[in-house]
Amino acid sequence: MSEVISFPGMGLSFDVSRVAFSIGSYNIYWYGITFALGFLVGMWYFHLRARKLGIHPYDGLDVLLWAVVGGVVGARTYFVIFQWDMYKDNLLKIFAFREGGLAIYGGVIGAVLVGWLVCRVKKVPFLPVLDGGLTGLLLAQAVGRWGNFFNCEAFGCNTTLPWGMTSNTISRYLFNMADTLAAQGVAVDPTVPVHPTFFYEFLWNLLGFLLLAFVLTPRRKYDGQVSLGYMAWYGLGRFFIEGLRTDSLMLGQFRVSQLLALCLCVASLVAMAVLHIRHKKAPAVLYVDTEESRARIAKVDAEMAKDGKKGTEEETSGEEAPPPEGTGDSSTDGEAPPETLEETSDTPAPEEEQTSPAGSPEEAPPAPPEEDTQETKENQ
Question: Does residue 263 have a pLDDT over 90?
């Protein structure tokens, strides 16, 4: 399942396989690995940034986990809607995720909607979570784009630039789609390298993440500003990159993602301008600076510390040695029950003088000294 992807103008070639490894007859694909890695680095960023946004990491990650589920469903739904001819005769294929077919804009829409609902249920402020979540998403998108490289997909039209790429899969795709692309106004030559648009988006997303995380987030004036920055930045880049691609979802003669990218970019820029003017007249208070945020974080920290202490005490209690057989119910001070005392000799043997006053070998041993079980724990 491997093939050679080459960059003739740079003298580079790579022998690439879609399959990373196999477990028995089950293949693990690089696309899935990069998707999972993107998810992890996005979560990692949010975990590090959450408190500075006024959100406890436990609350935020709980929201984001549900948002990921909504994102996957949204990405698939978006793709199916605009490729309905592929599924209308076999609806079960809609659930064949391993065959591919996820659209990033559908994923973003689904994740935002589900995240908003979960925030409402958990009574967590939505905009601070969105600011951190979308910044982490941009980093996840940058990592995930490398899955397109291993699948040899998401490439553009022909180019004579030095970094143009080609492979047997690319040439075959251009040959089979030449008439369809010509109807869209795109002329292709299967023998000429193409734009590595997956790499363009990787670079654009990575640069956007750095700007949002280290420039805009520390200087934000209101909650939601970083989210608008995400929509403007990603929309701008996607508008131009989508115009180069040869596998766009189409609505008539228009590229769906390109239209959506343009709308989101313009709308977010207008919103940022309006809110900037409003902020100058009446500065907003960031959620992180409110007493509500501080109280919520302190409460969750206290609850987690309490749960951690309780868990440790239960673990310690479970490790105590059971009393020897034959011992009746003993009192809390370690004395033997009355019937046991009656059966013992009035005068203890010399070797028994160092024992406890009860002196009976059948007694339960005294409880071990309490251990300091206090610990601090943070749910990641």
Answer: yes
